[in-house]
Automatic annotation (TrEMBL):
Domain of life per record: Bacteria
GO molecular function: acyltransferase activity, transferring groups other than amino-acyl groups
Disordered: region residues: 381-408
A Gene Ontology cellular-component term: membrane
Domain Acyltransferase: 35-355
Record flagged with keyword Isomerase: no
UniProt record, GO biological process: lipopolysaccharide biosynthetic process
Composition skew (Low complexity), residue ranges: 392-408
The organism of origin for this protein: Streptomyces atratus
Name under which the protein is recorded: Acyltransferase
Length: 408
């Protein structure tokens, strides 16, 4: 291939596609975060935490002398549906990631995802490993694998495909998210426009349906057939937020949601205490909340408390199970007279405080640093020109886009 053709291909990779096929609504062109979406992200995280702490059906989860269904029967029954918070996260992710992609190049999108996810994830993996190692040294059983091979596999964020266990129990969802990012990255390479995103949504659902019909493990892994409907619904909600509702987007939303509720039965089957009808109703209720947050006047909400809560969601989600539950068990073992529910409350409080610390010391410091260096690395200066470039300055072609939506 001629050098000129290679140079043109590289420039196309770094240049955002034009997106002028529909008139965007004013609210979506102003930038900034959507505080209401941040609040929904926190709600999803609380639901997952409630399931892991209070709603788990595992017998003697907190020990033989602590029967959770007996201690808090109503809370236990309601929290048993908290696993749907994971589905809610994927639904929100469709909205947020589509927003994050708009107006960015594939390189900018990749940098934003890496800088957002990896520093906090690395910190949590190391914290869990250190806690597990200390537990073994003092003669306690470690709940997480701490050997070097497993730790190295987990630092890649894809331990499952590498054949090792997850150090942080909830990290399996990050691998699902990563494959969604790859699909959106492929769409960015083609060029992000309104009609292309709509076509992408319909095509994804059809191909995912075919993969289920063929019982193809490979296609299921690539097309995320279990969760495709959630991501596409979120994407459709963002398109309504940006371009306004219309018949085509309602059809996409309806198709995606019918798909979602149909395949939801597979997930319900892995949670024997849950009912499909109740699960479908809870998840549909969350979709209504997302639509209200993105399409009503709430999209103009700018409460800093919600924005900060959204910033804590990711670190809290990562630590609440692998760190918070061992802490709660330790409190319960050291002070059994305290009672089960107070010990659970202390475990959750510790997780929240640790999340705030990680947000301040890791996310706010290492995230921007990693983003800046990755941006520079994507367009390095030739050796003879390096002294002329300002130290640490980002190349103009790859300067990060304005701070995007919740989760960006």
């Amino acid at each position: 291939m001629p050098e000129s053709a290679l140079r043109e291909a590289a420039q196309n990779l770094l240049r955002p596609a034009r997106t002028t096929q529909a008139r965007p609504s004013g609210a979506s062109t102003k930038g900034g975060r959507l505080a209401a979406i941040d609040a929904l992200r926190l709600l999803a995280a609380v639901a997952v935490a409630a399931y892991h702490y209070v709603g788990t059906p595992t017998p003697r989860f907190w020990g033989e002398n602590h029967d959770l269904p007996q201690a808090a029967p109503l809370l236990h029954a309601v929290s048993g549906y908290g696993w749907l918070g994971v589905e809610a996260f994927f639904l929100i992710s469709g909205f947020v990631i589509c927003m994050s992609c708009w107006g960015r190049t594939p390189a900018q999108f990749a940098v934003s995802r890496i800088a957002r996810l990896f520093p906090l994830y690395w910190a949590v993996v190391l914290i869990v490993v250190v806690m597990g190692t200390v537990a073994v040294l003092v003669g306690q059983r470690s709940g997480a694998p701490t050997d070097l091979r497993t730790t190295l596999g987990n630092l890649t964020m894809i331990p499952g495909p590498l054949g090792v266990d997850f150090t942080a129990g909830v990290a399996w969802t990050l691998w699902v998210e990563a494959r969604f990012y790859l699909l959106m990255g492929a769409l960015l390479l083609i060029g992000l426009t309104y009609l292309r995103v709509v076509a992408f949504g319909f095509l994804w659902l059809v191909l995912a349906s075919i993969s289920r019909e063929l019982n193809s493990t490979v296609l299921d892994e690539l097309l995320l057939s279990q969760y495709a409907g959630l991501f596409v619904t979120g994407i459709a909600c963002y398109l309504m937020h940006r371009f306004g509702p219309n018949l085509l987007l309602w059809l996409l939303t309806g198709f995606a949601w019918c798909y979602t509720l149909t395949v939801l039965d597979d997930r319900v089957a892995t949670h024997p205490t849950s009912d499909w009808g109740a699960s479908a109703a809870v998840l549909t209720g969350f979709l209504v909340l997302l639509a209200v947050a993105g399409l009503s006047r709430l999209r103009h909400l700018q409460w800093r408390t919600f924005v900060y809560a959204g910033a804590l969601t990711y670190p809290f989600y990562l630590v609440h199970q692998s760190v918070g539950i061992p802490v709660a068990r330790g409190v319960l073992k050291a002070a059994p007279a305290l009672g089960l529910l107070p010990a659970i409350a202390l475990g959750l409080l510790f997780s929240l405080l640790l999340a705030a610390t990680l947000n301040r010391q890791v996310d706010r410091r290492l995230g921007p640093l990693l983003r800046r260096h990755l941006t520079t690395a994507l367009d390095p200066a030739p050796a003879e020109l390096r002294p002329r470039r300002q130290r640490g300055a980002a190349p103009r072609a790859l300067a990060p886009a304005k701070a995007g939506p919740a989760g960006d």
